[in-house]
Amino acid sequence: MGDAKTDLLQGTLDLIVLRLLRGGPANGWDITQSIQVVSKGALEINYGSVYPALRRLEARGFVKAEWGVSDNNRRARFYELTTSGRKQLAAERDAWERFAEALGLILDGA
Amino acid sequence: MRVLRAAAVRVRALVRRRSTDDELDEEMRYHLERDVERRIARGERPADARLAARRAFGNVTALTEQARGASRVEALEQAAQDVRYALRVFRGAPRFALTVVLTIGLGLGLVTTAFTIFDAYVLRPLAVRDPRSLYEITLRDRTGRARNATLNEHAALTRANPAFAESFAYRWLMVRRDGEPLMVQAVTGNYFAMLGVPAALGRTIVPADADAAAGTAVIVLSHRAWRTKFGGDSAIVGRRVLLRGRSFEIIGVAREGFDGLTDLPLDFWTPITIVGALVDGLGPSDADQPIVRIVGRLLPGMSEAGAAAALSAWVATLTAERPEPERVATVALESRATATYMSSETMVVLAPVFALFALVLFIACANVANMMLARGMARQREIGIRLALGAGRARLVRQLLAEALLLAVPAGVAGFLLSRLALGAGVKLIVATVPPVFASYIRVVSLAPDARLFAFLFAGAIASAVAFGLVPALQTTRTNVIEATRGEFGVALRPTRIRNALVIGQVTMCAMLLELSGILLRNAERLDTLDIGFRADGLVQVFSPMALHHAIVERLGHEPGVSAIAATSHAPLDGRLRPITVSGAATAHAGAAGSIRVSPGYFQTLGIPIVRGRTFSVDEGYAGEAVVVINDAAALELWPNGDALGATILLGSGGRDSASPPRAARVIGVASNVVLGFIGERRDRPTVYEPAAVDTGGMTLLVRTRSAAGTAQRSIRHALSTIDPGGSVEIHTLDEAMAMQAYPFRVAHWIASLLGGIALVLTISGVYGVLAYIVALRRKEIGIRVALGATRRIVVALVVRQSVRLAVTGVVIGSLLALGMARFGAAYIPTLPTFDGIALMGGAAIVLLSALGAAYVPSRRAAAVDPVETLRN
Questions:
Q1: Rounded to a whole number, what is the distance in Å from the CA of A102 to chain B's nearest CA?
Q2: Which of B306, B404, B474, B789 is the most buried (most CB within 10 A)?
Q3: B67, A51: Cβ pair inside 8 Å?
Q4: What is d(CA B846, CA B731) in angstroms, rounded to the nearest whole number?
Q5: Could you give the CA distance from residue B377 to residue B388 in angstroms, rounded to a whole number?
């Protein structure tokens, strides 16, 4: 494990999962792999923590789940964004961008 | 929509709990398998691949818990699981569970008993219409002195309505019938209608009854008085009773359970306008005399403070033209929603009493906390294993707390039953022991449980569960997983210190309770042999209406058994004397003294020695001359050089910065100190006696008889029957008055002894528990000591020293607390000693000896430790 890895900010995993599901239904395994690929392995997360995040999003109605067949022909649970999930994603994305911009201003200005 | 779906997920999760769990497991398993497959495909060895996959995944158990928690149905589910688990634990240790339930039940029972009484008198609203809006008003002048209202003022208030929707006026009376006192309220005609109290028989008082200026001679009995004093006669309506020589018609009986708005039980009501016939010194229609108090119902939406302000302004204007002492500056409001008004004074007296009861609950909780800690040690292995398996600490603490709560619920039930038993027994005890004179002053209220009581009990059970469960739960789970699974206790685990603190706390409370009970016991005993300074035996008090006074003096003068008669404005032991201020010279600072008017024969009749000078002459008594006799204490305070005789004393009225100038009087005699008002008072309170004639109406007659007071009481009643047909004269022996005043001290002592006794039992078992536990914990060490040559004596001393150390610390703190409490009590009861060495030492000795006794079995067990056996293990 390299030194360049960054710990995940509290609460951002949900946002990441929502973003990754925008591309279409996926199961837990797919999501963990996408995180690896998209972030180029720079994020330090336990793969397992995706599952509580998925349950959390399900309970809040942002995703819905169905059992289906995975690409290696096994039974897997597939998650899909709901309409309110899409709205939530947009809202959180805006909030994040505002936050990052503000933080950037402060850090650059100091 | 989203809410609905979320709810559906939760409900589904609850209903199909099992299957969602399986789903989660399957999902996670799938993930791990995929990861392993991928790693093997990359060329890793299968074992390494599995390990790496798991490491990358994280703590499976914790994540599973987290994922389940995410559905938020977890809390509910966990609670059910905790309960199931706890029940299983209790099935395994029924004796432990029973001990906890009984110990906490005992503590809760005591607190609940105290609360039931508090609730019934102070919290429960009276059974009248909208009691929360009822307020009694007190009129105060600018010096703060309170006065009654006049009927005219009440009428004006009714017309103007500055704050009240309606109001009634009443006056307290005591009327005697067959020599027994009856509590009476004379009320305005709207009283019953305003309170919404109907009649059980006949009718209640209506405005027409109070309309006639001379009053209508009718009475309405309270239901209780009708049953207990009038035989519950269903044909009572229309019957007549003779009160102070006048015939009154009973027009009805009020609804059951209504005893008036006061903490004294009422026997009957009568129209306010008839009051002149029942009280000395009032004309038939003294509408301008300040003789009544007013209770009103606040206008809807009116606040208490707003009403006080509105009434103050209004009454101040109304009385602006009156002479100074009748001018009102402020009006104070007191709620009449409950039998006893919860003033700050009542709270100051009740709070410490309640605290004492709560202390016993505290001791019980400390005991159980100790037992839980000891069990926590025994369960260390189990808990260690669960921690090792990945259970969160919060989850385990919750589990242990659930066990505590589950024990507290049956303890609450046990406490409730116990309080019912205790109340039943207490009422029986009071009924059996209360002096008859006292009984008529006790308002008997229903002690039936109500919602407030159950809420209190529930809160008490939860609080005790937290008290005895939280510390052990935190302590037990604060553990090193590796050591705990091996059954060893790390350095982080020091429950001994907590246990010691708990035991010291117990001993402290126990010592304090026992010492207080000792102080009260010795005080109650002292009252039996109390030297009040005059001869109480053979002394009879006769309370009579003013009109009969002269005839009674005449009649008793001819009784052969009577040796002396005197009259006084204040019957001996009938409460504190009227306070006045006194000073020896116009320039001197005025001191406080009790004031009393007595006839010339008073000192001889009571047997109070005149130490200097003389008593009043008969002429001085009739003329009411400006001469006084003072007691030794007053003489010493005002004339320390002993030149009181012949000096001039200045007597001021008791109020603050009173406008009236002090009266001057010549001191003609000095009497020895006696207790006149209250047996809890010191004898050396300054007292000033002023002269009055023996047949001045309204005074209490004191009769010195040759026979025993009880016999004399009967013969005097017989002698007076011809001049007093209705029995409006009340006759008591002085012993009865003393017994009545001593009774509360006796009850206080009983309660303190009961609490002290229970505290002692709990404390002994607490000390025993800790020592037994310490011995068990140090078995190995003791074995090594014995192997190295320690004798039995040394081993026993080891344990005993431990016990004594705990006990001495507790006793010292407890004694200091008891001293503080005694000092607090002495502010109310001056005779209570602030330092009672015997009671303190006695209580301390009992606690110390008990602690030694509790050490006996554990020390024997320690001495019996077999070094070979312990070292082998």
A1: 31
A2: B404
A3: yes
A4: 46
A5: 17
Q: Predicted ipTM?
A: 0.81
pLDDT at B221: 95
Nearest chain B alpha carbon to A88: B2
Which residues of chain B are within 8 Å of residue A79 when distances are taken between CB atoms? none
The pLDDT value recorded for residue B134 is 93
Cα angle, residue B407 at apex, residues B403 and B410 outer, rounded to 5°: 150
Kindly report each contact of residues B641-647 with a partner whose C-beta sits within 8 Å and lies 24 or more positions away, as own/partner: B644/B612, B644/B670, B645/B612, B645/B613, B645/B669, B645/B670, B647/B584
Q: Tell me which chain A residue has its CA closest to the CA of residue B70.
A: A56
CB atoms within 10 A of CB B604: 15
3-state secondary structure string across B692-740: CCCCCCCCEEEEEECCCHHHHHHHHHHHHCCCCCCCCCEEEEHHHHHHH
Q: Global pTM?
A: 0.70
Q: Is B489 helix (H, G, I), strand (E, B) or coil?
A: coil
CB-based burial of residue B632 (10 Å sphere; 0-12 exposed, 13-18 middle, 19+ buried)? buried
% helix, strand, coil for chain B, step of 5: 55, 15, 30
Per CB-CB distance under 8 Å, the chain B contacts of A51 are: 24, 27-28, 31, 63, 67
Q: Is 70 exceeded by the pLDDT of residue A11?
A: no
Inspect the interface and report whether the beta carbons of A28 and B27 lie closer than 8 Å.
yes
Check B66 against A32: CB less than 8 A apart.
no
* Residue that wins the pLDDT comparison between B170 and B389: B170
Range from A70-79, B195-204, B465-474, B559-568 that averages highest in pLDDT: B195-204
Long-range Cβ contact pairs of B655-658 (< 8 A, separation 24 or more): B655/B143, B655/B144, B655/B145, B656/B143, B656/B144, B656/B145, B657/B143, B658/B143
Instruction: Give pLDDT, residue B25.
Output: 83
Residue B69 pLDDT > 80: no
Q: Mean of the pLDDT values across residues B742-770?
A: 86
Asked if A55 lies within 8 A of B24 by C-beta distance, the reply is yes
Our CA angle for B66, B71, B74, nearest 5°, is: 70
Sequential DSSP letters for B364-401:
HHHHHHHHHHHHHHHTHHHHHHHHHTT--HHHHHHHHH
Question: Residues of A with CB below 8 A from B30's CB?
Answer: 27-29, 70, 74-76
Two tokens, residue B871: 């070292």
Put simply, the answer to whether B34 touches A59 (Cβ < 8 Å) is no
* Residue of A51, A70, A82 with shortest CB distance to B63: A51
pLDDT, residue A2, reads: 37
Task: For residues B758 and B694, give the distance between their C-alpha atoms in angstroms, rounded to a whole number.
Answer: 54
Position B491 confidence tier, pLDDT thresholds 50, 70, 90:
very low
Q: How far is B18 from chain A (nearest CA, A)?
A: 16
Distance CA B114, CA B119 (A): 9
Q: How many contacts does A have with B, using Cβ atoms within 8 A?
A: 81
The structure tokens listed for A3 are 């030194």
The shortest CB-CB distance from A76 to any of B3, B30, B56 is to B30
Confidence of residue B414 (pLDDT cuts 50, 70, 90): very high
Q: What are phi and psi of B843, to 5 degrees?
A: -60, -45
Among A27, A52, A72, whose Cβ lies nearest the Cβ of B70?
A: A52
Q: Decide if B699 contacts B549 (C-beta within 8 A).
A: yes
Return the residue in B3, B5, B14, B17 with the most chain A beta carbons within 10 A, the one to mutate for interface testing: B5
Q: Residues B624-658: pLDDT tens digits?
A: 888 999 999 999 988 888 788 888 898 887 655 55
Lowest mean pLDDT among B3-12, B27-36, B810-819: B3-12
| B766-784 per-residue burial string, b: 16 or more CB within 10 A, e: under 16 | bbbbbbbbbbeebbeebbe
Contact B803, B854 (CB under 8 A): yes
